[in-house]
Amino acid sequence: MSTTNKIALVTGGSRGLGKNMALSIAKKGIDVIITYNSQKDEADAVVAEIEQLGQKAASLQLNTGDVKGFDVFVASLTEVLKNTFNTGHFHFLINNAGVGIHASFAETTEEQFDTLMNIHFKGTFFLTQKALPVIADGGRIINISTGLARFSTPGYAAYASMKGAIETLTKYQAKELGARGIAVNVVAPGAIETDFGGGVVRDNEAVNKGIASQTALGRVGLPDDIGGVVAFLCTEEARWINAQRIEASGGMFL
Fold first, then answer.
1. How are the residues of the chain apportioned to helix, strand and coil, as percentages rounded to the nearest 5?
2. Nearest to 146 by CA among 158, 160, 133, 157
3. Distance, CA of 155 to CA of 164 (rounded, Å)
4. CA geometry: angle at 72 spanning 25 and 19, to 5°?
5. Cβ atoms of 32 and 7 closer than 8 Å
6. DSSP label at residue 66
7. CA count, 13 A, side-chain hemisphere, 207
8. Percentage with pLDDT > 90 across the chain
9. All residues at 6 or more sequence positions from 204 whose CB lies less than 8 Å from its CB, including other chains
10. For the chain, domain boundaries
11. Which of 5, 11, 151, 216 is the most buried (most CB within 10 A)?
12. Residue 1 predicted with pLDDT over 80
């Protein structure tokens, strides 16, 4: 295998949407490094699946809500790039890792707020900052938002606010990193059938049907509806897309 392959780093790539993104990216002929928080076995299984597709892969432990751990992570990442991929840089950063907390505005606790902020906004902000020396010029950063930053459904005030911050941050990153040829975009999934947020969209039939009825294409999203969009943004064809919010929701709440 040539060492000139491009490499993507997908945070939270051991399951759900992150796993689908990692596999979709590998199918484009790109090598992949995934991070996992606690599910090492699941991460190892994804690495094996990527290798079966003919790409190099590796996994690293990372808690995206713990900024103090980022220097050690970037050091580990640099080591893996050198030893496994024979390079000093990677090309595509996909800031996917996240958790869902459902609570009304009136009942959201400071602890819930801080958890969401640390993982979805502060963590993404500083992980990207710390990774800048290792991201190749001409690379891409893909941040993950949510349809909930465009429309409002009760129970996601804190979560959606963090994603709104990510959407603003994306524009600033695109402006400030443009001199290095780095494009930065946002992918905003609609409601997807995964275990995210306790699997409510997948497992609660009433919720599932309600969302489907409000979606132009008449169904709830699946992980396969999202991974390919992220993979496309890592291709040469997507080179002129920059500072954009791409919502992949099947047309929710139009």
1. 50, 20, 30
2. 160
3. 15
4. 20
5. yes
6. -
7. 14
8. 94
9. none
10. 7-242
11. 11
12. no
Distance CA 109, CA 1 (A): 50
| Closest to 46 in 3D by CA, of 74, 8, 76 | 8
- Report the distance separating Cα 10 and Cα 129, nearest Å: 16
Give the C-alpha distances (Å, rounded to integers) separating 44 from 48, 59, 79, 86, 91.
6, 7, 18, 20, 22
Question: How far apart (Å, rounded) are the C-alpha atoms in residues 114 and 163?
Answer: 14
Kindly report the backbone phi and psi dihedral angles of residue 140, in degrees, each rounded to the nearest multiple of 5, phi listed first: -140, 150
Q: What is the pLDDT of residues 165-203, one digit of tens each?
A: 999 999 999 999 999 999 999 999 999 998 887 888 999
Rounded to whole angstroms, the Cα distance separating 60 from 10 reads 10
Provide the CATH topology of domain 7-242. Rossmann fold (3.40.50)
Indicate the residue type of 170: T
Phi and psi (nearest 5°) for 97? -55, 135
Q: What tokens does 26 get?
A: 């590998």
Integer CA distances (angstroms), 139 to 22, 63, 86, 107, 179, in order: 17, 24, 18, 41, 12
Q: Which of 62, 46, 49, 55 is nearest to 6 (CA)?
A: 55
Q: Is residue 89 helix, strand or coil?
A: coil
- Fill in the amino acid letter for 103: A
* 36 given a catalytic annotation: no
CA distances from 73 to 10, 89, 163, 207 (A): 14, 14, 24, 38
Tokens of 212: 């489907």
Total-model pTM: 0.96
Kindly state the helix (H) or strand (E) to which residue 22 belongs, with its residue range.
Answer: helix 16-26
